[in-house]
Amino acid sequence: MHLQVTNSPFTNEQAELINKLLPTLTEAQLHWLGGYLAFYRTDQVSNTTALLTTSEVQDLPVAAVVTQGPREATILFGSQTGNSQRLAGRLANTLKGEGFEVTLSAMNQYKTNNLKKAGYLFVIVSTHGEGDPPDNALTFYEFLHSKRAPKLDGMKFSVLALGDTSYEFFCKTGQDFDSKLAELGAARIVDRVDCDVDFEDAASGWLAAINDAVTVATVSSSAAATPVSSAAISGDMSAPTSTAGDSAYSRTNPFKAEVLDNLNLNGRGSDRETRHLELSLEGSGMTYAPGDAVGVYAQNDPTLVNEVISAMKWSPEETVITGKNGEASTLYDALLHHYEITVLTKPLLEKAAAYSSSGKLAELVKPEHKEELKAYINGRDLLDLLRDYAPWTLAPRDVGTLLRKLPPRLYSIASSLDAHPEEVHLTIRKVEYEAHGRNRKGVCSGHIAEHLKPGAQLPIFIQHNPNFKLPIHLDMPIIMVGPGTGVAPFRSFLEEREELGAVGKTWLFYGDRHFVTDFLYQTEWQRMLKEGILTKLDVAFSRDTEEKVYVQQRMLENGKEMYEWLQDGAHVYVCGDEKHMAHDVQAALLAIIEQHGGKSPEAAAQYLSELQEQGRYQRDVY
């Protein structure tokens, strides 16, 4: 392709500089520049620049004419823990580098009356809970699925969906957005990509495909946009990372943190074990803020690994490939550190059926046995699968194609960096239960409770969470609801406010089973109450009374005062179990607003929705 910049929309100095740069430009950059210049000509008489005529455009080399579509892009994200937001930021930076005007917004902050004007729309969204949109995607999701949604003919779009294949409604929110946008008339330029918990490669491929689609597409003004198939997407771009300030450590390059302390917070006689873990960040350059999380790369239970190898009569020393660049390890190490073996998913069973000689597994994964498959997956692991559907033709070399990578576990940070320089603290409850005739353990919590002593190392990274943050103004009141280990971020919140000298009122609702054995951080809360750092503390211990009492009941008992705090500008934070507690707490909040605010159910829901949009109702639920 030949380009020569003479008299143009540029000054002589700019034209001279561009001509010097032309030999260094990539093909994509040349296409873009050619397209930009293609519609201008120089009037040799007046030495002015004007638009080319249609016939003049047709005489130009085809490669110099790029799609004359919009040079603006709208990127909307729906994110609970921050992954979608970080990926959206990466895409925004890429498109800005290609000359786009970019609108980047959380879905709940986006003005929906601008949607019809958007030329390119890119949606990056996770699926939460049982197929639900994240909190900051809910209002936009409801708008798009309402009668108020506009026709979107002429819009070009693509969706990146984040999810977890161990859940029944894998990537459902992203799938819903994808189908609805198409239904409203928008045209896909890149097929939707659904990402599992190990999302880096798939997400990077989608980002690369978007970049290609908007910068090198060469279609005439009358040609329809042709979607790029997700099958053609490759992971050429570097993987998205969770950076911590200027630290070199990230999700893909974790820091090996030294264990400083590992204490059991539960008292003698408790049927629970909750670890308070203190890790050193010395030398890492990592920083964090209250509300952020730590991603932990743990290892599988060595006993379970040995049982899997024994069930298949494999050699633990056999060499297997564990990385896309050919990295290798022994089979034992691969199963210990690299692959998930404690969770079964539908995609795993579908792939495994090809290796099972019994025929029963192939029958189980058929669509008509959806409910039986769901029931089988629940509470079982790889060892169960190997025992139940033998004999197998599976070889050690097939492990990498069958199993997904062992994902990091995220834990809310329970410390303030100002209060504990170069340290991070976590609150982790050991998961242990019996199912299908065998004892089971949580991968990370079991590893930490049973194997991590002071001096040991644990690979970690910081996961920033912009959706769970203290108010900027130190005089704002805050209400925190955190039963069990959900109290972890509120230790961080209160330590931070103590360090900063915040004067705003603070109110903590805490619950667990027994006061004597399960009151996590009891002495710390008592000190904070005495010193005025914590204004109010309401507790609920469900097993200490004949009738079980939970935090939402304590909220209802204090409903009048809670509503007064809300009217005074209080921010409400909820952390903990999403399936039950978070729903019950939200129902209690709505009841309080309805009763003490004198509002109808619809008006109470609108009030709470407005709190959420203002960042005054934030949840970190799992």
What helical percentage do the residues reach? 25-40%
Instruction: Give the percentage of residues in beta strands.
Output: 15-25%
Structural class: alpha/beta
What integer value in Å does the Rg equal?
A: 28 Å
Mean pLDDT: 87
Global morphology = globular
Assembly context of the chains:
single chain
Low-confidence stretches: 1-9, 38-70, 217-226, 228-245
Q: What's the story with the biggest beta sheet?
A: 6 strands, parallel
Tell me the distance between the termini: 53 Å
Number of helices: 22
Number of distinct beta strands: 23
Name the descriptors.
alpha/beta, 622 residues, single chain, 23 strands
Descriptive overview:
- It is a single chain.
- The chain contains 22 helices and 23 strands.
- With 622 residues, the protein is of the alpha/beta class.
- Helix 5 links the parallel strand 5 (120-126) and strand 6.
- Helix 8 crosses helix 9 (331-338) and helix 19 runs parallel beside helix 21.
- It starts with 11 loop residues before the first helix and ends with a strand.
- Mean pLDDT is 87; it is low at 1-9, 38-70, 217-226 and 228-245.
What is shown here, in short?
By secondary structure, the protein is α/β, with parallel strands linked by helices. The protein has 22 helices and 23 strands.
List the helices and strands and how they pair.
Layout lengths: L11 H10 L5 H12 L1 E4 L4 E4 L2 H6 L12 E7 L4 H15 L3 E6 L13 E7 L11 H7 L11 E7 L9 H12 L3 E2 L4 E3 L4 H16 L39 E10 L9 E7 L12 E4 L5 H10 L7 E3 L6 E3 H8 L7 H7 L7 H5 L5 H8 L4 H7 L10 H4 L6 E4 L10 E7 L2 E4 L2 E4 L1 H9 L5 E7 L14 E4 L6 H13 L5 E7 L2 H4 L3 H10 L4 E6 L9 H7 L1 H9 L3 E6 L1 H20 L3 H13 L3 E5 L1
Helix pairs in contact: 4-7, 8-9, 8-13, 19-21, 20-21, 21-22
